[in-house]
Each structure stands twice: as structure tokens, then as C-alpha cells.
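Quick start: load a record and inspect it. Here is Phosphodiesterase:
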Amino acid sequence: HALQVLLIFAKEDNQSDGFWWACDRAGYRCNIARTPESALECFLDKHQEIIVIDHRNSRYFDAEDICRSIRATKPSEHTVILAVVPRLSADQEETSVLPLLNAGFDRQFVENSSITACYNELIQIEHGEVRSQFKLRACNAVFTALDHCQEAIEITSEDHVIQYVNPAFERMMGYRKGELIGKELTELPKSDKNCADILDSINTFIKKGKEWQGVYYARRKSGDSIQQHVKITPVIGQGGKIRHFVSLKRLHCTNENNKQVSYFFHVIIFVTCSKLIFFESHSFKCKNRRKDSTDIKSITSQSSDAPSLQTRRYSSMARIHSMTIEAPITKVINIINAAQENSPITVAEALDRVLEILRTTELYSPQLGTKDEDPHTSDLVGGLMTDGLRRLSGNEYVFSKNMNLSHSHFSVPNTINDVPPCIAQLLDNEESWDFNIFELEAVTNKRPLVYLGLKVFARFGVSEFLNCSEATLRAWLQVIEANYHSSNSYHNSTHAADVLHATAFFLGKERVKGSLDHLDEVAALIAATIHDVDHPGRTNSFLCNAGSELAVLYNDTAVLESHHTALAFQLTTKDSKCNIFKNIDRNHYRTLRQAIIDMVLATEMTKHFEHVNKFVNSINKPMASEETSPHSEGSDCECTANIKNFPDNQTLIKRMMIKCADVANPCRPLELCIEWAGRISEEYFAQTDEEKRQGLPVVMPVFDRNTCSIPKSQISFIDYFVTDMFDAWDAFAHLPVLMQHLANNYKHWKTLDELKCKSLRLPSEN
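Running the structure step on this input writes:
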């Protein structure tokens, strides 16, 4: 809601007018009171967050008495009170603010009738004291929830000093709160049933800011050990430093002969001001407790009609169990339906809601709020995560070149004989992550893909695998590069070369190399080379909105990615001189083709979160559990051998690899990162310009060249798409150099954003 301000001035003057118009500019609601009585009455009615009292002249009223009378009321504990004091002459000495503070004032403001000065003061109060008060109010609500939570919760400082435990924790551990607060965790007795290195393992996780969860034995006050399921979440404060650890604990129970079923319903309280996330769980363990359970709260808002719900549930069960072919999701639904049968009605309703969610198609895509989200994030995500807004205007976007392949002639550059020394010298460094692709672009006259491709493909034995000559490979690279648009500021052959370079770098990492076969490596390098061929410099959403030929051809689904793969194979097979696949047998070709298509389609952003989540759940988590297992020797060879035994896992790795290579710009050295940011922004600006010219829906309104903040757009992209994906990829491939660049680059964009600088560099760096 809009902030409310109360001005207490006996007489209207320039100063009261200054605050009045400052409130108007800031969008605050403002009331003016002329007497102490009307001021108190107005405050008790409206509960304003800020009060400004005229303290310049005691002839009309005593400002300190008014402040004390307001402070005597309960609502004032969340109010900031400002005293307007007279300006001192040059020969007057500054007076102490203690009398004002003792009277209940929070700040003083030396009279200044400038609207801007008044506005600045109010804005500072809002962003400082008022927001702090909001946080305190939210904390009161949070701690009330924690006190009534049935899970045991413990909050410690960054030094592991206990600062809070809830009543459930006291009941579980047998201690009273007063016996624990202020003690270090190391002072409490430990159970001897834990693995010797479990504390080191936990500390390794949480000190990196990562959540740890697992089974842990704790010693109660009585001396007996209990097995707990523990989740420890670090809480990051200002400056990125860990300020607290929140531990959630519940007794670890096992299902005995499948007769006991535990349900956990999590009420999530998000406290955005302090970035705390608490989980309240109600557990129902024994069958004979269900009938008289009274502490569960329905998580659905609809009222229930028990008989009709039961009837509907049993008829659903009959239909599902009659199916002869079960997909994995069908099995999940069967399990949930079976669990519903003997559940209380509130539990059944909650599980019905779960079933509703499972039946949606976008299970992996997070939902962005529309009101309070940063427009840079919502525009960027909206533009990249959808296949078009489907609000067609009747205008059609026609490519600058003819897209009808049967009538097209694709130009092929002249044959490259020998690699010039200046290019060869640059390519000596191509195995380094810090390789400068823009220098190669410059010396090759915007044809870096052929030269880098020849070097990388030779290193990975691509010609030998495909049984094709270097001349055929060279001709193929030339044809592919010729069909990238050099007029695009970003999606050109330099971007393709950059993605090829990143893919080759990833393939050189031990764990990646050990997980993939030679065919996978060849498929990855080819996919990287072709992944954006003939890109028009416009997004999928643009093409769908414009009713382009490609959007119609591919039914508005993965339009560009489908075109890139189809065109690449058409270009390759239409001329024997550049057909790199002509000498491999049919089975190899089909397997290779499928792998290439799958990887290029993975670069389409609507499935981004699905690919990342599958990688985390199928690759990261099993490997992490193997590494932390007391029976594991931690051998990388063993892990990668297990992956090789599961082709689905190899597919997930290849998808993740090309996805990371495709958006690795924020992980490049700062100068390269800045150049890429400028190029992609220019391409988006050009799209917005064209959308406005053609009367099309503007897919990403923030990418207006006159108003856009490039640092904000980079921060949003890194926060939403890059960080989690590269954390997952780094956990698998071990990429410390990239992660350091990412941290440095993010800091660069944050600094620019904090300084309200919309350009790529600080003014001093230009």
C-alpha cells in the first residue's frame, strides 16, 4: 500500500508546502494537522508510517509534547517521527540531538523548503527506518509461526551460537530454551553413532552457502541418541555473507512392512526482507491416528463435500488401475490415489491438489509473478521462455533472404589453402578458456568458424571418426559459416565459434570425457557448429507473432531450433563435396543425427528448467550421495562408468553441455563478457525497433535502446538462467575458472546498477 505521512504544522508555510509536494511526488498519502489534538486523532485513525512535526517555533504548540503523546500510543512503535528544526546562523553552535531522541523523535531535519530536499529526506526514511519496521513486523509473524510449528527448529549465528529454538525443539531434545540460547553447538553433547567425518561434510556444504540435508544422530538431554532427518539452510545477509543457519529437524522414521505412511505438508513462509525460508510440517505416521487428527490445515481453499469426493476418487482409481500400459507419471498418480483411500478428507483434498499440479504440462517451469517482478526479469524471461504471445496483428515478417530452400542458392566462400601465420598463432591458445574469439573474428574477416572448426575437429579426430577427408570437412565448415548472418550483431558465426570453443573446452574436462563416447563428442562439436545457422537475429516469440513462414512450418514450436537442424542437414547432404556423413554406415548416421538434433533442440529456452532439473536429479544428486557415502571410495572413474551404463544420463550431460556453452558469455573474462552483453542488447534493441515499426506486440519492452539498463538485464539473466545451471554443471565438470569469472562479472554489473549506470562500463573506464 502507499506510504502514509502526517504533517503537523500550526501554520501553512513554504516548509509545510515543501513536504506536501514531496509526498505528492513520491506517491505517498499525506494528511496535515494544525493542533496537537487533531494530530493525535488523525494518527490513531490512520496509523501513518512517517510523522513530520514542526519544531521551529514553540509559540503555537510544544513539538516534544506532541511527540511524547504519540509515542504513548501502541501503533507508534512502527512509526518514524521527524523533527523540523530551524536553520542555525553562522555564529550559532550546533545543538545536541539528545533532547529530541529522548522525546521520541527518530531524526531531525534542518529547515529547507526545497521540494527535492524534502523528497530526498522522505525517500531515505522509507528505504531505511520504515522498511526496517516492516521487517520487524514480518519477523513477529514469523516467530509466532515458528513457536506453533510442529517441526523442531533451531537458528544459530554464523559462528554456530544458538539464538533461537522453538517449543517443538525443546520437546524433542529435552532441553529448556534458557539452557540453550547463547551456547555454541560444540558445547552440547554429541552422539557417538554418527560417522566420524559427518560434521566436516556438513560444514563443507553450509560454508559454501549450500543447503545440507540428511540423517543425523543427536543426543538428548537424557543421554539417549535419536535419529533425526535434518535440513540446514544458510541465510545470506548483506554483502553476500552468511549471517545465520536455520536447522529443521524431525524424527527419522522408517516404514515398517509398508504399514506406516508419513505425509509431510509444508507451509512455506517467505520473508523476503531477510531471505529466510521456513518449512512447517505436520506429520501423520500411524494409520490409527488418522481418524482423530485435528492439527492438519487444508491447503486448498475450496470447501469439501466428503461423499462426492470419495465417490469421485474411487471411480478415478478404477479407471487408472484398469490401464494396461503405465507411464511413470501414471504410476505416481496410482500411488497418490492409493494413499488417498484411507486418508482424512483434508489430506485427500491436499493430494487432489497435488494431482492437479502433476497433470499440468509445465512441471519444471517456475511461475513468475506479474506485479512485483523486476521488469527486466519478466521481459527477458517472457521473451525467452515462450514461443510467442500469439497476438498476431496480420503483419508478416519476411526474412531478408529467401527461406524457400528449393529455390535458394547458398554462397560458398573461396577455398582456404593454408592458415595464415597470424591466425595460426592465435589458435595456439584455443584450448584456454580465456581464448579471445573477437581477435580471431578480426583477423579472419568475420570467418572464425572455419578456422577454429578445423583446429578443434582435428584435435578431436572428427575426420577419422566420420571417415571423411579434411577437404570435405573444410568445405562443410565453409558452407555452414556462409549461412550465418554476419549482419546480426550477436547470432552470427562468431557466436557459433564461441559455442564450439566452449563445447570443446568442456569435452576436455576429465569427468565429461570419461562419461561420453567418441560418437557423443563428434555429435557435440557438430551440434555446436550448426546450432544457430541462418538465425535471423529475432526471437521465436517475434517470429510467431509475425506469422513468419518458419513459425507456420514448425507450428510455433521450437521454430528456430528446428530450422537450424533441418537446414544444417539439408546443406550437408545436398552436395557430395561437403557431405561429411557420406562415408559412415546407416546406423552410425542415424545415432549421430539423433544426438545432434537432440542437442540443438535443447538450446531452446522454453525447456530450460526441465533440462536443468533433470540433470540435477539424475546426475548431481546421485553423484553427491555416492561421494558422501561412507562405502564410496570417491573414484571419478567409478562415477563416470556408471553414467556410461545409462544412455539417458549421457543425453542429459550432452544437453547440459551445449546449453552452458550457448550462454557462457557471463562466465568469460570481463572484457569478452562486456562485448557479448553489448552485442545481444543491440540485437534485442533492433527487434524492439522492428516490432514498433511493424505494429507487432513488443516481446521485451525493457529492451528499448533509449531507456534500457544493460546492467539490469545482465543481472536478471544471470540470476534467472545462469547461476543455478552453472552451479550444477560446475558440480559435475569442476570449472573453478568459469565460476570465478561469473562472480567477478556479476559484481561488475551490480556495481554499475547501484550507480544507476545503464551502459556497459563505468564512466571512468570508457
